[in-house]
Amino acid sequence: MRKPFLLLIVQLFSFQLFAQPKTDGFLVDLLKKQNDSILKLVMASPDSFNFQIIYTKIDRDRRNRPSFKNYYYHVDSKRYFNPASTVKMPLAFLALEKLNEMNPPWADMNSILQYDSGYNAQTREYTDSTSETGLPSIAQYIRKVLLVSDNEAYNRLYEFIGQQSINRRLHSMGYPETRITRRFVRMTPEENRYTNPIYITNPKTKERILQPMARNTDSFDFSNVHKMGRAYIDREGKLIPEPMDFTTHNNLPVEDLQQLLQSVMFPSSVPMEKRFRLTPADYQFLYQYLSQYPSETNYPKYDSSHYYDSYVKFYFTNSGRTIPLNIRVFNKVGWAYGCMTDVSYVADFENKIEYMITATIYVNKDGIMNDDRYEYETIALPWFNAIGKAIYGYELKRKRQHAPDLSSFKLKYEVRKNDGRKTIREVDN
Fold this sequence. Notes:
It is a single chain. This protein is α+β, with helices and mostly antiparallel strands. The protein has a single domain, classed as DD-peptidase/beta-lactamase superfamily (Beta-lactamase), CATH 3.40.710.10. It is 31% helix and 17% strand. It has helices at residues 2-19, 25-32, 37-43, 46-49, 88-100, 138-147, 151-161, 163-172, 189-193, 254-265, 280-291, 376-397, and strands spanning 52-60, 66-73, 112-115, 194-195, 198-201, 208-211, 214-215, 227-228, 231-233, 239-240, 244-245, 327-336, 339-348, 353-362, 368-369. 40% of the residues are buried.
């Protein structure tokens, strides 16, 4: 009887150890050395701010092959945060992958997509005034989700790929805890299972095919209950005095976020099953719009005084509205319900340094969800700035055996034309 009992004790003890958030002393010490009041405030209350940080150190060998070392701070895949717009990043990757596998073979990112409706709450879309042609395409939707995090563009990517395909593919790639179940528009869970019928047209030959409406028949595992806050505002504007339930919402752990971006920036660094089936042209397109600024983009032509260079580059907003010319940030951010997240690969071409940072924080002092009273500006962004400054400063000083050749990430960006068109200032993001 003693052996089974002792085995049970060991298993319970092991489970407790496993359940603890992952934290590396190196990263804790690095951040503790920073004389920053906001950083100290947040670090003193990890559970209140629900923060998680992954710093990825990258080193190259003499043949310029990268190796990666992750350092963690309070990282726990079971601890829920709302991923908000970060879910748009894997959908951009999956949309390009789907085009590569479609029949007919002429379908590509510049094919014309026109959305019909076939189920309750679905909307039609036949034109796109932000594109050069005036017509919708996967390329234009990806530009919009990466440049300013456009919600409507995300919805259209979701509808093109389909709820079932999104989740089956991500799970098969080794992301079983990642779950993307909804558009960013008011719909019921059942309505989100249906995706629109879409006409896909070859812009050269005008050949057209129909992608019929689809319904996801797969079930989701909602056994882990996720609730946040002490109260919330419902759709009718009424205060409900209980935590808001996020159990059926989108889920994207920070470790999955880090791996998803790494798999595209450095495909050969991850196992084959974690690689998206993309072409060299796809990678170049993604690199461009993961790092290009709205001020460098003609279509869509965003108001660069509102959508400034560091608008979605949280680790560098301390430099003002611009980012030093020697630095490019390849990233995706998200913010909603008090949760703010950024997954980034940073390249400094002048100083020859590179690294990744993935972090999330929850700022909701009054504990009320959906009241639009979150401390994004006063706590979250200064916190991201402090982390970015600390890690960039460390990277500037640390010795490398081999300086990286970053030429594959040094791209030619667009030049904004003064063509008299009005700029876009209002975007639902």
